[in-house]
Design a protein that fits this description.
The protein is an alpha/beta fold. The protein has six helices and eight strands; from the N terminus they run E-E-H-E-E-H-E-H-E-H-E-E-H-H. A four-stranded mixed beta sheet has the order 2-1-4-3.
């Protein structure tokens, strides 16, 4: 039996060829100042880059001939990684946040769930409302239907209905997604935070991460999922449970 280690293989990004790794006989060269030097023998282009204390970097291998640029390769890699990080940070990622409730959830808890759901939506997230049934509760799906209809009504100024209330095994669920104007506002706020970060970096200050109001999880995680789920496991019979 082999005891060799197993490594997961991820697709490798295309390798950038520089200097003597560029094997084609000639290349089209762009100088460090952006001027076009035309087509040169690869060896001559490499020597020109080395004389400037720089590298010859292949920027368009599919060109005929390939296009190379004279530049600082270390700085080039740093700038490319920085661009990738910024692009990823600016992408709008829509998550699905779930709000759980029960047919017996009272009015006060319903309002708590509405507030949490609205905060999720205002942060640009979809919201899934799930009413879970236990025991004989499933024989009264109209209760869950009323609850979900109420919740959807409270979200209609922020969200569009993506999934109307529907049964899913022993639960009934509905999904809403933020309206375009909400997503536009979220994008604008994210762009402003990026400007604030860039300004802080330029001034040598710490980036204002603490100022980001995006998904303040503790505030959003009000008791919205298991506040009343575990007190009646196997409670198929005694619906009239004594109140304290």
């Amino acid at each position: 039996m082999s005891n060799g280690r197993r490594f997961s293989r991820e697709p490798r990004a295309p390798q950038i060829r520089i200097n003597h790794r560029i094997r084609v006989p000639e290349v089209r060269v762009v100088a460090e100042d952006g001027s076009n030097l035309g087509v040169l023998p690869t060896g001559d282009a490499i020597r020109r880059a080395q004389e400037a204390g720089l590298d010859l970097v292949e920027v368009n291998p599919k060109g005929t001939p390939p296009v190379c640029k004279i530049l600082d390769f270390g700085k080039y890699k740093y700038e490319e990684k920085k661009k990738q990080r910024e692009t990823k940070r600016k992408q709008t990622v829509v998550e699905i946040k779930e709000i759980k409730l029960r047919p017996k959830t009272d009015d006060h808890d319903m309002e708590v769930k509405v507030r949490a759901a609205r905060k999720f939506a205002e942060a640009g997230n979809k919201v899934r409302f799930t009413v879970r049934f236990r025991g004989r509760e499933i024989t009264h799906p109209e209760v869950a239907q009323r609850q979900l209809s109420y919740l959807l009504k409270q979200m209609e100024d922020l969200c569009n209905i993506e999934q109307n209330p529907a049964m899913e095994n022993r639960a009934m669920a509905a999904v809403v997604s933020p309206k375009p104007q909400v997503m536009q506002r979220v994008a604008q706020e994210r762009a402003q935070r990026e400007k604030d970060r860039e300004k802080a970096r330029a001034e040598g200050k710490s980036e204002p991460f603490n100022a980001v109001p995006e998904e303040e999880e503790e505030a959003l995680h009000e008791p919205d999922d298991d506040d009343d789920d575990d007190d009646d496991d196997g409670d198929d019979g005694d619906d009239g449970e004594a109140a304290n």
